[in-house]
Specification:
- By secondary structure, the protein is an alpha+beta fold.
- It binds adenosine monophosphate (AMP) and glycine.
- Adenosine monophosphate binds next to strand 8, strand 9 and strand 17.
Length: about 425
């Protein structure tokens, strides 16, 4: 099969690496991709939001399946454009991608179908929001309704902070139209776990769990980022938690979407908080996590291409997922200053150290080729260094060892990815 991947980050590199292993794959393309992805795929210089140009390319090049990795094109309706032209595509339609695209929608869905989540109110104008803040309990959480690059969530400890937050989101429109509507949510405490799943709209298959580290600095300090590192599986995702989520969350979400006339085909990412009252949904995403994909996909034994086809063709009930009985850790190498301002175009050295090593992966997030074919940094998150090991601590040691193989002048990483694993004595 000829497969086109849409996206350009570490997640898309991990998808490409898994698809490359499939006997079904004849040729891979990626639009627009990055320098590392270019080692596995033919790069297509079309941006992810140029739906018609991408569909033209798929038609002209006899692409058998397009896989959309990123949220923006999914929420924007790329799948509808492809399907409208009779092209096979993996991902939710616009009316289902709203599960990520609108927090007000997803909260309402959870309430209607009794899916456990934090208590909340949805507001459409700032005056209403300020009124609620008067009698609210603190801390509380403010969420811009729409996509905001993962930055539209504010945790406010006091009424003053919350008032400033409402002003930012709803009046100053810091996140643009994403802030026309806002969710005011109860603050939950506990451990966070990311669970990715595949669904064909009826059947759902759960992948191995993972945990992200969203803050920029060690000790969960600093600003929120797209994710600075991950591990999989999460030892906190116990059998008991799994049983609860299967009973109350996963299938319930798929069934709810179908009942609403919005059947969801693709990946549903469940952002869970394991609270004292049990697991609750913090958020849904309509695609693989980044960098969750970089630790989950390398551990998946099932042919990814088969899974994508089973979802698109509505026969996921006949396929079970299998994962290796091991662990993986991903450490993101970023440009110093990320997520605010940082320099790009620095030469990256040492990448050849990964060649021929089966349990080490160097997933490219923001890289490009220089004039002489050298690899250059080209983003905030530059590389995701993943290692597999027989257990989490081994994988962690190996990932940090491999993180030293690569050099660029403004390289920055967190040193405590998976540190909780050392201290944890999970029940
Ligand atoms: P989201 O984009 O909804 O995942 O929010 C980003 C991050 O904010 C989450 O990963 C949590 O760490 C935090 N967060 C979101 N909602 C809540 C909540 N209700 N209580 C506590 N923390 C939250
Ligand atoms: N790593 C979190 C996300 O992909 O949204």
């Amino acid at each position: 099969m000829k497969i086109l991947i849409v996206g350009s980050g570490g997640r898309e590199h991990a998808i490409a690496a898994s698809l490359k292993k499939s006997p079904k794959t004849e040729k891979l393309y990626c639009a627009p991709g990055n320098a590392g992805i270019g080692e596995l795929c033919e790069l297509v210089p079309i941006k992810a939001m140029e739906f018609d140009a991408l569909a033209d390319f798929a038609e002209e090049n006899g692409i058998d399946l397009t896989v959309v990795g990123m949220d923006d094109p999914l929420v924007g309706g790329i799948v509808d454009v492809f399907e409208g032209r009779g092209l096979k595509v993996f991902g939710p339609r616009k009316n289902a991608a709203i599960l990520e695209g609108s927090k007000a929608f997803s909260k309402e869905l959870m309430k209607k179908y009794n899916i456990p989540t934090a208590g909340y109110e949805t507001v459409h104008d700032p005056a209403e929001a300020y009124r609620i803040l008067e009698t609210a309990k603190y801390p509380l959480v403010l969420k811009a309704d729409g996509l905001a690059l993962g930055k539209g969530v504010l945790i406010c400890n006091t009424k003053e902070e919350a008032e400033a937050g409402v002003k930012e989101i709803m009046e100053d429109k810091k996140f643009g139209d994403a802030g026309n509507t806002m969710v005011i949510e109860e603050f939950l405490t506990g451990r966070e776990v990311s669970v990715l799943s595949f669904t064909d709209g009826r059947t759902i298959r759960i992948m191995s769990s993972a945990q992200d580290h969203k803050r920029a600095k060690d000790g969960d300090q600093g600003l929120n980022t797209g994710g600075m590192g991950t591990f999989s599986p999460s030892p906190f995702y116990t059998e008991e938690v799994d049983r609860f989520c299967r009973e109350h969350i996963y299938q319930a979400t798929v069934d709810a979407m179908r009942a609403e006339g919005r059947p969801f085909t693709g990946v549903i990412f469940f952002g869970l908080m394991l609270t004292e009252e049990g697991p609750k949904v913090l958020e849904y995403n309509c695609r693989f996590g980044d960098p969750e994909a970089q630790v989950v996909l390398p551990r998946m034994k099932t042919d990814l291409c088969e899974v994508f086809l089973a979802c698109v063709e509505g026969r996921l009930d006949r396929l079970e997922l299998e994962f290796e009985d091991n662990a993986a850790v991903c450490v993101v190498l970023a440009s110093d200053g990320y997520p605010l301002s940082y320099e790009k175009g620095k030469e990256i050295k040492g990448l050849s150290a990964f060649e021929g090593k089966d349990d080490y992966f160097c997933f490219h997030a923001g890289t490009k080729r220089g004039e002489n074919g050298e690899f250059l940094t080209n983003g905030g998150r530059v590389l995701g260094i993943t290692a597999k090991g027989e257990d989490l601590l081994t994988a962690r040691r190996k990932a940090y060892e491999a993180a030293e193989w690569v050099e660029f002048s403004n390289k920055y990483m967190r040193h405590d990815i998976g540190k909780a694993l050392e201290e944890a004595s999970p029940s």
